[in-house]
Amino acid sequence: MKLTAIRGAICCENSKESISEQTAKMCNTLFEKNCIQSKNIISMQFTLTKDLDSFNPCAALRKEKIIIDTNEIPLFCSQEAYVKNSLQKVIRVLVTCYVEDELKVSHIYLDGAEVLRPDFCA
Predict the structure, then answer these.
(1) How far apart are CA 1 and CA 71, in angstroms?
(2) Residues of the chain with pLDDT under 70
(3) Rounded distance, CA 79 to CA 32, Å?
């Protein structure tokens, strides 16, 4: 096993429902594509752009149907640094975890966030 960090981002609307659903979609996709088990996750760091203030993605992760058990994973959320003319309504995640040595990590950019890292989405 090797220690790595996997990135993800997804766009959503500023509502509790959208933040919850999109957080679950992003995390489930990231966990599935990278064969991640909860026992291998060290921590997860979320950020939100300043226009998303209806719900915390950490709370959303605990509330939604997630394909792995996230109850024991340390979660943290902060506001994304504001950069003029940057993409709005974005949730980002950084998952620090162990993966199989031979696994090529798949970073996840969905629902409009692909423009942030088109090199990962090709």
Answers:
(1) 23
(2) 122
(3) 26
